[in-house]
Write a structure and sequence with these properties.
Chain B: This is Nitrite reductase small subunit. The complex is a heterodimer of chains A (about 800) and B (about 110). With about 800 residues, chain A is of the alpha/beta class. Chain A has 25 helices and 38 strands. Chain A has 7 domains: about 160 residues, FAD/NAD(P)-binding domain; about 110 residues, 3-Layer(bba) Sandwich (FAD/NAD(P)-binding domain); about 80 residues, FAD/NAD-linked reductase, C-terminal dimerisation domain (Enolase-like, domain 1); about 60 residues, BFD-like [2Fe-2S]-binding domain (Arc Repressor Mutant, subunit A); about 55 residues, no CATH class; about 110 residues, Sulfite Reductase Hemoprotein, domain 2, CATH 3.90.480.10; about 170 residues, Sulfite Reductase Hemoprotein, domain 1 (2-Layer Sandwich). In chain A, helix 1 runs parallel beside helix 7. Classes of the chains: A alpha/beta (about 800), B mainly beta (about 110). Bound molecules: siroheme, flavin-adenine dinucleotide (FAD), iron/sulfur cluster (SF4) and FE2/S2 (inorganic) cluster.
Chain lengths: ~800, ~110
């Protein structure tokens, strides 16, 4: 039985342990940190709310890491290692995976309290604690990790400075031109960049008070984070007499073996082919090679792709292949903050590399072509970004984190009949680390021609758009009729609400009318949003966010009388939480009497049209944005759709209403309105695209009418407009052709449908209150109407209720 | 052993929908499916801890009658109480019948 001992428990050690699963021997990991290996690449997300558990990798079966165990010495003759607690552990094979440590330049004051590095969860805890009393922070180092640390300081609310020795930021990933554009982005975010500047000293008596630059300028700050490069942790290897490089790093051969054949070194501490690799992808490959060798294989590590793509401070930065070449083609948009450059061979036939700032689309499409013939004219490739979608050659690497080629992905898709990206991830590991290759995986999947099933669920073999056509053309009016004629079984929580939504879009009937009631999920069924403890929330419509004092008072009184938690929402209206089902009609009776109506916060329907105050009050406003927002919200209220719909209207280009993050957003111009469509906040933010510009109000409304109805007819279930547009063949141009130029001859039809919706609108809550049959459902217990649910209870926090007693 | 308690009129239950009955401290979710059959399960959603299963969407999976939790959509068999997405989790099921137009359940 071979005893493998691993020193260090970082990502490299973790991947090694995974790759040794099922190996005939023991694997002991000695890690200095107080917790098992975690995803260091995602470290910064810890400050944004991820927990240490979220980041921690699952420990593979059969491996018991000894945590908090620093190895202090290696006895190569006896084949043992000693840990700080004095314990001695014997090995047959030793693997050094000690990673690296941040480099702290030897400047006076570097050890003062208030000086930090940015490498471990403990470092982040310490920085967060210190930020509580600080106002300003400095990051020394403007590379990839330095800017990430700067973003973290900014996120902690500090005035943030970045001091970088080179004349521009991220010198290892971008050239001077890219650096200038990047600097513009960083400064617009409010950070101060000191490029071409070193550090003379850190000032302070018993705590940091600031930093002095060599030119004498003083930057006051209470926190300094050093992120000026990394140094491999080769101290154990050095002391044990293993070969190390001149500038550090444990020398290894292609099989990751050090100068002692029973000792391997992997990850950031290893000097492979004369190079230290500071990216996790190559570290993983080294771990796999070492595991293979330990099992008797002959795998080898012959270098790795150092391409990087990341989003720092919201700015996309990417670099692939070489950073120079005989010829280059540059695209520069200083206003939009976009810089893209491609390097090609002297005959302009072969792609050598590229740099992107502000738009990384070329990275996704072009990285696999490095060293291969260009798939198009360089200028076209840069301008259109993702304009080319040729088939990738089999040997093109698609996932650099896990070294997976297009051929491997394609083979997995075909051999195992995969139909989604999740399957590709599980079979090949591609896409499981930084995720930047996922769009490429999706593309390969689609291009492979596998039948990606469009069936809604086991009950219908049709997509939502096809069901919409069926319902419309055949004049279907009930779910029962639809499933009997076109489906199987009795439906489920996927198809029932989808069909309910289609029937509602087409027929305008009350969602609780007849059989419809049984199709709705609990939100639509009680016309309110369910909360974690089984209570519901109430959101009256407040069009455009405009409300009279009298109506505000009514909301306050209702909330007070029913003891509801009250909050201003992100949608410019007010949400009242904690109502039991039997209270909902009583609450709505009061609200309806005061002139409120349903806000459809519970439905896949129009939510809010936010607005700014516009030209009525604002000195910059050029049109009455509030009036238009109220008009739009009133026009489209109650429109049921595949997913929720949000909108906003801003009175000028300053965009205070954030219209470009909405499904449809309107921005006033001197001459009329610009209409933007298919924006999204939420999970995957997307800026809306300009559909038409400088149009008058009638044209605007006609265009929105058609846009909405076209979406309602053709989108998939739960597909927001942004995802719908991205999947739409022909994209924005096709959409404009359909709704502006009527290329499909659909517009008359769309116009009729919207007019029917507008004319047929009624308030769902008022109608419910008028119908005793519908009201009967609003009770907690069928055998004890009026008895409140005893499982619901509340505590008080900041003078309002909060749910208690729900386990999760 | 069964100990029938009458809870409501059969007509109070809507086809393809649930309702909840309170029996002592026990919350029982009652379901009437499209073919008129009745089922009774616990009302507590074991995943969220909230008493809400009676408000889920009723349907079928491979012919088996089901309810989906309104909280996070796990699907339970109305026949066995097993969660079809995670068979290790099972909710209680109770005997239910109609007697002279009244729905009766037994929680013993
Ligand atoms: C109340 C509110 C938060 C607040 O306290 O401010 C809220 C609360 C909820 N949001 Fe939201 N969202 C609220 C504004 C937003 C916004 C901001 C906005 O609308 O300007 C966004 C980002 C904008 C966007 O949608 O593009 C937002 C993005 C989401 C998402 C992600 C959507 C996406 O496309 O990724 C979800 C999940 C979903 O819908 O699938 C969600 C879902 C939810 C749900 C419905 C979750 C749930 O199923 O329980 C929450 C329940 C609301 C309730 O019980 O009343 N909420 N949510 C806001 C209500 C606004 C309103 O007046 O209607
Ligand atoms: C903030 C941040 C962001 C990053 N972002 C990216 C990114 O976007 N993309 C990317 O590719 N890479 C990124 N990296 C780099 C990536 O995290 C590293 O490449 C990776 O962590 C290397 O793994 P490793 O296991 O070799 O070393 P490490 O992660 O350094 O792990 C080594 C472990 O060994 C322990 N150790 C050292 N000496 C001893 C000893 N004597 N006894 C016991 N234990 C010891 C250390 O405490 C440590 O836990 C980022 C790094 C940081 C800090
Ligand atoms: S968007 Fe323009 S008009 Fe509206 S509040 Fe802002 S600055 Fe004023
Ligand atoms: S490139 Fe990072 S996961 Fe594929």
């Amino acid at each position: 039985m071979t005893r493998v001992v691993v020193v260090g428990h970082g990502p490299s050690a973790h991947r090694l342990a995974e790759s040794l699963q099922g190996f005939d021997g023991t694997v002991t990991i000695l890690g200095e940190e107080p917790r098992p290996a975690y995803d260091r690449v995602a470290l910064t997300s810890y400050l944004a709310g991820k927990s240490a558990e979220d980041l921690t990798y699952p420990v593979p079966d059969g491996v018991t890491p000894r945590l908090g165990s620093r190895v202090t010495g290696i006895d190569r003759a006896a084949r043992t290692v000693t840990t700080a607690d004095g314990a001695v552990t014997a090995y047959d094979v030793l693997v050094l995976a000690t990673g690296s440590a941040p480099f702290v330049p030897p400047v006076p004051g570097k050890d003062l309290p208030g000086c930090f590095v940015y490498r471990t969860i403990e470092d982040l805890d310490a920085i967060r604690a210190a930020a509580g009393t600080a106002t300003a922070g400095i990051v020394v180092g403007g590379g990839l990790l330095g800017l990430e640390a700067a973003d973290a300081l900014r996120g902690l609310g500090l005035e943030t400075h970045v001091v970088e020795m080179s004349p521009w930021l991220m010198p290892r990933q971008v050239d001077e031109g890219g650096g200038a554009v990047l600097r513009g982005h960083v400064e617009r975010l409010g950070l101060t960049v000191h490029a071409g500047a070193g550090v003379a000293r850190i000032t302070g008596e018993d705590r940091v008070t600031g930093l002095v630059k060599p030119d004498g300028e003083v930057i006051p700050a209470q926190i300094v984070v050093f992120s000026a490069g990394i140094r491999p942790r080769d101290e154990l290897a050095r002391a044990a007499g293993l070969a190390v490089g001149e500038r550090g790093g444990i020398v290894v051969d292609e099989g990751m073996r050090t100068s002692d054949p029973s000792i391997y070194a992997i990850g950031e501490c290893a000097l492979a082919g004369g190079q230290i690799y500071g990216l996790v992808g190559p570290c993983f490959t080294m771990a796999e090679v070492a595991a293979d060798r330990i099992r008797g294989g002959s795998g080898s590590f012959t270098g790795a792709d150092l391409s990087t793509k990341l989003k720092l401070l919201g700015v996309a930065v990417a670099q692939f292949g070489q950073m120079s070449g005989a010829l280059d083609v540059t695209y520069l948009d200083p206003v939009g903050g976009v810089y893209k450059k491609l390097f090609v061979s002297d005959d302009a036939s072969t792609l050598l590399g590229g740099i992107c700032v502000g738009d990384a689309a070329p990275y996704d499409t072009l990285r696999p072509y490095v060293g291969k013939p260009l798939p198009g004219l360089p200028g076209d490739l840069l301008f259109t970004g993702s304009g080319v979608t040729p088939d990738l050659p089999d040997d093109a690497q698609v996932c650099s984190c896990n070294n997976v080629s297009a051929g491997t992905v394609r083979a997995a898709v075909l051999d195992r009949s995969l139909t989604d990206v999740a399957g590709i991830k599980a079979c090949t590991r591609a896409g499981t680390t930084c995720g930047s290759c996922v769009p490429l995986l999706q593309r390969i999947l689609v291009k492979s021609g596998v039948p990606v099933s469009k069936a809604l669920c086991e009950h219908f073999a049709y997509s939502r758009a096809e069901l919409f056509e069926i319902v419309q053309v055949r004049g279907v009016t009930t779910f029962t009729q639809l499933i009997e004629e076109h489906g199987t079984g009795r439906g489920c929580d996927i198809c029932k609400p989808a069909v309910a939504s289609i029937l509602a879009s087409l027929h305008n009937a009350h969602v609780l009318e007849g059989e419809n009631a049984a199709l709705q999920d609990t939100n639509d069924h009680f016309l309110a949003n369910i909360q974690k403890n089984g209570t519901y929330s109430v959101v009256p419509r407040i069009p455009g966010g405009e409300i009279t004092p009298d109506k505000l008072i009514v909301i306050g009184e209702v909330a007070r009388d029913f003891g509801l938690y009250t909050k201003i929402t992100g949608g410019q209206r007010i949400d009242l939480f904690g109502a039991r089902v039997e209270q909902l009609p009583q609450i709505w009776r009061r609200l309806v009497d005061a002139g409120f109506e349903s806000g459809h916060a519970y439905g896949k329907a129009l939510r809010t049209v936010k607005s700014c105050v516009g030209s009525t009050w604002c000195r910059y406003g050029v049109q009455d944005s509030a009036a238009l927002a109220i008009m739009l919200e009133t026009r489209y209220r109650g429109l049921r759709s595949p997913h929720k719909l949000k909108s906003a209207v801003s009175g000028c280009a300053r965009e205070c209403a954030e219209a470009r993050s909405k499904d449809f957003g309107v921005i006033a111009t001197e001459n009329g309105w610009n209409l933007y469509v298919c924006g999204n906040g939420g999970f995957k933010p997307r800026h809306a695209d300009l559909l038409v510009s400088d149009v008058d109000t009638d044209t605007l409304i006609r265009t929105i009418d058609r846009f909405l109805m076209f979406y309602v007819r053709t989108a998939d279930r739960l597909q927001r407009t942004s995802a719908w547009l991205e999947a739409l063949d022909g994209g924005l141009d096709h959409l404009r052709d359909v709704v502006v130029h009527d290329s499909l001859g659909l517009c008359a039809d769309l116009d009729v449908q919207i007019e029917r919706h507008v004319a047929g609108y009624f308030d769902e809550w008022r109608a419910t209150l008028e119908d005793p049959d519908k009201l009967r459902r609003f009770t907690s217990f069928v055998n004890a109407p009026g008895v409140p649910d005893p499982s619901i209870s509340f505590a008080t926090e900041r003078d309002q209720i909060r749910p208690v007693g729900v386990s999760s | 052993m069964t100990n029938w308690t009458s809870v409501c009129d059969y007509a109070d239950l809507l086809p393809e929908r649930g309702a909840c009955a309170l029996l002592g401290t026990e919350q029982v979710a009652l379901f009437r499916t499209f073919d008129g059959s009745l089922y009774a399960t616990g009302n507590r959603d074991p995943y969220s801890g909230a008493y809400v299963l009676s408000r889920g969407i009723v349907g079928t999976r491979n012919g088996e009658p089901t309810v989906a939790s309104p909280m996070h959509k796990q699907v339970f068999s109305l026949v066995t109480g097993a969660c079809l997405d995670d068979p290790a989790t099972v909710i209680p099921i109770f005997p239910i019948r109609v007697s002279s137009g009244m729905v009766e359940v037994s929680v013993l």
